[in-house]
Write a sequence for this structure.
C-alpha cells in the first residue's frame, strides 16, 4: 500500500467514525472547517504531519496555496489552544448554536404583505457611484478595509490607502469586476502571518447576511429574501448582488468586541437561519 492510499484509508475511516466532518464546498466555510478538523485530529493524538495530509485529502479548497496557508495557521492556533488548561479552553469555546435549518414557509409567511422590494429599496437607498464610494460608506473615517486579493493583483489591497496609488486608481471607479472585501475593519498589517484573520479585526461590528438557497428549488427566493431584508428590524447598512447569484446584506450590530458580537449573533441565529440566512456567513470574518 502506498502512502497516499494509506492516507485515503485513514481519512475514510475518520469520516466514517465522525472524528472528521465532511468539508463544505469551497467558499462555504473551508477555513473554519480546517481549524475544527485540526483541533479534532490533534486532540485524538494524530501527528501534525498526518493531520496536515488528512486535511489536504478531505478539503474541498481548490487553491492549494491557500489551503497550505490556512492549514499552517490552523496548526499554530490549535497548538496554542490545546496548550491551555481545560477551564480556559471552556471559556474560549464558542457556545453551541441551535440545530435549525431553512424553513421556506417561515420566510414566505413573514413577507406576504410586503410590496415590491425594489420600489422600497429605490426610495430608501443611497446609491453608490463606484467601489471607492461604497467602501467609504461601509467603513468609518480612519478605518482600514481589506479588499481581498484578486487574480489580477495577486495581493490584498487596503482601503483607502491603496486606492490612492497607481495602478489601482484606474479600477476604483469601475464596477464590472465587483470587489471582495472583509466585512469588518482591520489593522492593515499581518498578524501571525495573515492580513485578514480574526486577529486582524479592529472592531467586530458588521454581520453578513446571505441567502444562497438555489433558485432551481425555490424560484422566488430572491424576491422573498429582498422583502425579508427590507422589513428586517435590524440596521441594514448595505444590500448588494453577489455575482448575480444571490443577495448579500451587511448589518451594523453596533458591537465592538468579539464577545459582544457573538452574544448578539447568538440571539439572532435561529430566526435568521430559519428565514434563509446562510449559517456559515454569521461570523465576524467574511
Amino acid at each position: 500500500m502506498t502512502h497516499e492510499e494509506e492516507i485515503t484509508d485513514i481519512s475514510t475511516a475518520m469520516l466514517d467514525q465522525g472524528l472528521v466532518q465532511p468539508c463544505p464546498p469551497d467558499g462555504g466555510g473551508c477555513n473554519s472547517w480546517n481549524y475544527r478538523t485540526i483541533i479534532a485530529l490533534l486532540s485524538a493524538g494524530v501527528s501534525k504531519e498526518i493531520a496536515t495530509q488528512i486535511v489536504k485529502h478531505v478539503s474541498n479548497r481548490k487553491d492549494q496555496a491557500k489551503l497550505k496557508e490556512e492549514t499552517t495557521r490552523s496548526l499554530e492556533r490549535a497548538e496554542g489552544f490545546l496548550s491551555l488548561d481545560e477551564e480556559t479552553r471552556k471559556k474560549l469555546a464558542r457556545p453551541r448554536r441551535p440545530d435549525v435549518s431553512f424553513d421556506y414557509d417561515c420566510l414566505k409567511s413573514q413577507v406576504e404583505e410586503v410590496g415590491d422590494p425594489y420600489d422600497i429599496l429605490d426610495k430608501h437607498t443611497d446609491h453608490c457611484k463606484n467601489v471607492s464610494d461604497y467602501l467609504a460608506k461601509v467603513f468609518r473615517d480612519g478605518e482600514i478595509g481589506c479588499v481581498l486579493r484578486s487574480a489580477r493583483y495577486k495581493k490584498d489591497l487596503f482601503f483607502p490607502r491603496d486606492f490612492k496609488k497607481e495602478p489601482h486608481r484606474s479600477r476604483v471607479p469601475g464596477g464590472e469586476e465587483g470587489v471582495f472585501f472583509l466585512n469588518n475593519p482591520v489593522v492593515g498589517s499581518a498578524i501571525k502571518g495573515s492580513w485578514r484573520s480574526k486577529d486582524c479585526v479592529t472592531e467586530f461590528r458588521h454581520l453578513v447576511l446571505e441567502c444562497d438557497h438555489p433558485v432551481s428549488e425555490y424560484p422566488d427566493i430572491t424576491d422573498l429574501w429582498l422583502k425579508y431584508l427590507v422589513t428586517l428590524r435590524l440596521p441594514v447598512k448595505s444590500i448588494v448582488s453577489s455575482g448575480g447569484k444571490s443577495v448579500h446584506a451587511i448589518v451594523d450590530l453596533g458591537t465592538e468586541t468579539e464577545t459582544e458580537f457573538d452574544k448578539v449573533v447568538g440571539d439572532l441565529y435561529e430566526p435568521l437561519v430559519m428565514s434563509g440566512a446562510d449559517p456559515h456567513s454569521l461570523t465576524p470574518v467574511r
